[in-house]
Specification:
Layout: E1 11-15, E2 18-23, E3 27-31, H1 33-46, H2 50-62, H3 78-83, H4 91-105, E4 113-116, H5 129-141, E5 145-151, E6 160-165, H6 167-176, E7 185-189, H7 197-210, E8 214-216, H8 227-237, E9 240-244, H9 253-263, E10 268-273, H10 274-279, H11 287-290, E11 294-297, H12 300-323
Parallel strand pairs: 7-8, 7-9, 9-10, 10-11
Antiparallel strand pairs: 1-2, 2-3, 4-6, 5-6
Length: 324
């Protein structure tokens, strides 16, 4: 059997009506027969390249953040996969993505990471093995990594190389993930449904203000960028983020935004309406999220008060300790 995305040989496993595809290039993901039969048509309709979808799936597998479930790729979800993921376009962005991958794969300082030219090129959002080789050589030229000898010389199927992050690479990683210590912004990930507006306006916004922070939401900020660029920039400008999972089944992006912030090392404060959280049967909030320490609020006034206290007792307290 072949992977429906990259057409490489892959394993298929059936589970409760779904199909789990296990591909060395794209990673593991849930899908169904409709997508397998029509993926080329769906991509053509969206004017998207299959290698970008391979890269997104592989990235979710590697940087799973707070939600360790396998990605679920069904016909209705394809557009959302592209909309919710920032695709690195410049060489510098791809180099940074490569470093983050090597860090994730390094079990300890000085650990050698094996790169397969044939299977690993999606991790840097390129379309062929020649490009990942070129980027790896750039990493070596920049002294970000130390390159070992290749196993099997020449660009052939099955060619591998070992590398490890060098001091300049670790310094660059610090710059990539640097958190603005003086920021007074906190990004808010939540449902944008009209019925949920009071959660932000009467609970989250004033609660953050009690602790001296300005809660911002991507749909309430004027911008000229694409929406995902704005979301990513807002998260990077923030000291921490607030993720409210009330009605999260209506906005799956909350998981991505919280996971992205976690990947940057930003603290995430989890909140949810108590009745929604307790009545959930597992079809609204992912199991992994339920293990987090949520503020389970009864009404917006309760949320405002408890959120303000949580920020003061965690974000402000530990921030002040670090300044001593």
């Amino acid at each position: 059997m072949k992977c429906p995305i990259c057409k490489k040989i892959a394993d298929y496993t059936k589970e409760a009506g779904d199909i789990i595809v296990d591909c060395h290039r794209c990673g593991e993901f849930f899908t169904n027969q409709e997508l397998i039969n029509n993926i080329d048509f769906f991509l053509k309709e969206l004017k998207k390249e299959s290698y970008i979808l391979s890269a997104i799936l592989r990235e979710i597998n590697v940087f799973s953040g707070i939600n360790d479930e396998l990605p679920r790729l069904y016909p209705v979800d394809i557009k959302g996969f592209f909309d919710l993921h920032k695709v690195p376009e410049t060489v510098s962005e791809k180099i940074d993505k490569f470093l983050l991958y090597l860090e994730k794969r390094s079990d300890f300082l000085g650990n050698d990471v094996t790169i397969s030219f044939e299977n690993d090129y999606p991790i840097v959002y390129v379309s062929r093995s020649e490009e990942i080789r070129y980027l790896l050589n750039l990493l070596g030229d920049l002294q970000y990594v130390i390159l070992g000898p290749e196993v099997n010389s020449g660009l052939v199927k099955g060619c591998f190389i070992k590398c490890r992050i060098d001091i300049a690479g670790w310094k660059r990683l610090e710059e990539i993930k640097k958190i603005n210590p003086d920021s007074k912004i906190c990004f808010t990930a939540m449902s944008f449904e009209k019925e949920d507006e009071p959660i932000f306006k009467k609970g989250i916004k004033p609660g953050a203000k009690l602790a001296g922070y300005d809660a911002k939401r991507s749909d309430m900020v004027e911008h000229n960028d694409m929406i995902m660029d704005k979301i990513i920039n807002l998260i990077k400008q923030s000291k921490f983020i607030i993720a409210d999972f009330t009605n999260s089944n209506k906005k799956g992006g909350i998981y991505y935004e919280a996971g992205f912030a976690k990947g940057l090392g930003l603290p995430v404060i989890f909140t949810c309406k108590e009745s929604y959280f307790k009545e959930d049967k597992g079809d609204k909030i992912h199991f992994d999220i339920k293990q987090e320490n949520h503020i389970l609020w009864k009404n917006t006034e309760d949320l405002k008060k408890r959120l303000g206290e949580r920020i003061k007792n965690t974000i402000l307290f530990y921030g002040n300790l670090q300044k001593r």
